[in-house]
Amino acid sequence: MPDAWPPAQYAAYKRRLHRTLATFTLGLVAFLSLMAWAEEQGLSRQWIGPIFLFFTVMVYAGIGIYGRTSDAEEYYVAGRRIPAMYNGMAAAADWMSAASFISLAGGLYLQGFSGSDGQPGGLAYILGWTGGFCLVGLLVAPHLRRLGLYTVPDYFQLRFGGRWPRRLAAGAAVLCSFTYVVAQIYGIGLIASRLTGVQFEIGILLGLGGVLLCSFLGGMRAITWTQVAQYVVLLMAFLIPVSWLAYKQLGNPLAPLVYGTQLQKIAELEKQLIDSPAEKQVSAEFLRRAHDYEARLQDIDAALLREKLAGQDRIRALKAKGADLAVIVAASRELAALPHDAASARELWTRAMRESYERAKPLGGSPLHSQAFSGDPNGTPLEREKFSNSRLNFLALMFCLMVGTAGLPHLLTRYYTTPTVREARTSVAWSLFFIALLYASAPALAVLVKFEVMQGLVGSSFEALPAWIAQWAKVDASLISVSDVNGDGILQWGEIRLGADLIMLATPELGGLPYVLSGLVAAGGLAAALSTADGLLLTISNALVRDMYFAETTRPVRPQHRVILSKFALLAVAMVAAFVAALKPAEILPLVSASFSLAASAFVPVMVLGIFWKGTTRRGAVAGMLSGLGVTLAYMLLNAGPLRSYSGLPSGGDLWFGIHPVSAGVFGVPLGLLVAWAISIGDRPRKPT
Fold this sequence. Notes:
Elements: H1 7-40, H2 45-66, H3 72-77, H4 84-111, H5 123-147, H6 152-160, H7 164-196, H8 200-250, H9 255-258, H10 260-275, H11 277-298, H12 300-321, H13 325-336, H14 342-359, H15 381-405, H16 409-412, H17 421-439, H18 442-457, H19 467-475, E1 480-482, E2 496-498, H20 507-510, H21 515-552, H22 559-582, H23 588-612, H24 618-638, H25 641-647, H26 665-683
Helix pairs in contact: 1-8, 2-7, 2-8, 2-21, 4-7, 4-8, 4-17, 4-18, 4-21, 5-15, 5-17, 6-7, 7-8, 7-21, 7-22, 7-23, 7-24, 8-18, 8-21, 8-22, 10-18, 11-14, 12-13, 15-23, 21-22, 23-24, 23-26, 24-26
């Protein structure tokens, strides 16, 4: 407990927090009931979304204003007086992020339980992220809390001394946190634009206002209590739709216990789809398109010229026939959308060729949902290779996510806020409990949604498709793709492609649930993204200002000045991250997974060695961090498709042992550990002979 508080006062403080949490939860339930009643009375859907956005953001902003502070202890570590249960709740909200709330069920929907040879994942995300908290509780959190520090780079300076360990730790914190926060802001823009109908870029700015009001004004103090409120929102937003869907399909709301029944039905539906003549027609058309793109890539300049001439001829023919103006405008847009040079044509057509080849496979390239791994261990050499690669990538991704959890700076900082070391360890257990409430339901949600799509959406007439499909396509065309490929007017499984970032957000609409639940799910996704973005932006600004700028100056600086500069650095970083997110660099799940590999290789080997082995030296720490992070970052960049295309390298990549770039930490972690150990051994003074 805080040194200044006697036990009775600390107990009264916790009782006051319990009453506040209960009041907030009841108020949220009352708000949901009011919105459900308003929908029954005819409140337009165009109003429900903005009301959810405004209400939740204003609640978070109010907490941020109430928790504003300029005190360094309060701003950086919330005064070190957050009880274990509430710190665990805040850590769970910080942890859930846009990846876990928005994309995890989508990843399971697309990749099945084990992922595929092209997309490692599935249950690896749940196993890796959950297991990582065991490492945090056993290896890291209690030891860091005992030192009474403010940031993760503080530990590297205290343990190893000198400037370079702190500089490298601060730089790595900025790198992995920035990658992470871009994914969160992308999720914020996605949800805000869907709720309000505004453009994606404006949606980013709307949601970002809620982030800045909390983290800018109150730092860790305001962020902590905001995250507690956000956890309540996202918990209800996740569990209510999945329970409703389970009750609708199976008559039992306990989705994690009953969804196995739907797994058997999905396996039967998958067999029917594989044997369906209509699905085979779709596959044949995608194969034809893949061959067409492959032929274009043989002579890109000539193919590009043919495409442009054909587009111009089509426009002239339409004008000569007196076609409708809208048709002519559409043809003109298609012509304008053609690549402007050979390099961009190569990148675009190569990507289209790969996607067409993938969708030409049975089930549109989707793996069997409950299969062990891709391929067959007893099949042909190619099938055995696919099986081996799929299993290896599953284990590699799980390893990177697990170890990366133990090294994420914004997560470890959460355990600086507890009153004692004992409560830091207890709060890790609370974090696991609160996370498990949602993670146990994520596989069930993926299965229930897939059954809903296979049974309810597939086989529908294109003329009778639900309106939400077109509405989501307006938000981002990459989220959903629907086209009558074989021309029969009926939607086949291979003709619909849903993005991982869409599945959770569209669950109420997919299941035909009341629209108020769509607003609740969007509010939950927004809460997940905002809660993580808060902590990440604070981590980046602290690393830039406290661990880099002020650590290099020799003149005395007042704590209030540090806080003020940290706030403005946070604002600048948020604007840069918003700009990058507006470019839509990748889906949420791959971006977040990459940050785990970076954190795992940069921090964990040297941090764990420094905690448990007194022989770790400064030179060993610096060499270990540089080598681990260097090889991880190099592997990711050298196998990035856009970079290889820009530099003229072959598009296939140079994979080591078939490991995908997102799991590059599997090389960086052991290398960093080995180099740090070897250099430290070499630095030990030799005994005189």
